[in-house]
Write a structure and sequence with these properties.
Elements (H helix, E strand, L loop, with lengths): L1 H4 L3 H27 L4 H8 L2 H61 L1
Length: 111
């Protein structure tokens, strides 16, 4: 607070005016929100047609089924990829041992 007293007069006036604007906008915003009444979401939920709600519910159920099927298919694809990667890893191990055998044979021939 002592540092505020050291500010020049124009800076103090600007600071005070800024604080006054902030509090004024906040106060007026609270007043306008109180006058607005019920929100539009509340009114819209009362107006919604029950048949539209039922069709939306059916669409959401269908989407959930499709998503479940997609998850099952993705799980099967992941298992298939794991089996193929395992097969490739075995082939790489076989190639590595074959290369090791070739290097040993070459070392024997070089002697």
């Amino acid at each position: 607070m002592e540092k505020l007293a050291d500010l020049p007069a124009p800076a103090l006036i600007t600071f005070g005016a800024t604080l006054a604007l902030i509090f004024a906008f906040r106060y007026l915003g609270i007043i306008s929100a109180d006058k607005a009444g019920p929100s539009s979401a509340t009114v819209a939920s009362v107006i919604v047609d029950p048949t539209a709600l039922m069709s939306a519910t059916a669409a959401v159920k269908h989407l959930a089924e499709v998503m479940t099927d997609g998850q099952e298919e993705a799980k099967n694809n992941a298992h298939m990829l794991c089996r193929r990667i395992e097969g490739l890893a075995n082939e790489v191990e076989d190639l590595t041992s074959a290369i090791r055998d070739i290097r040993v044979d070459l070392a024997r021939l070089a002697k």
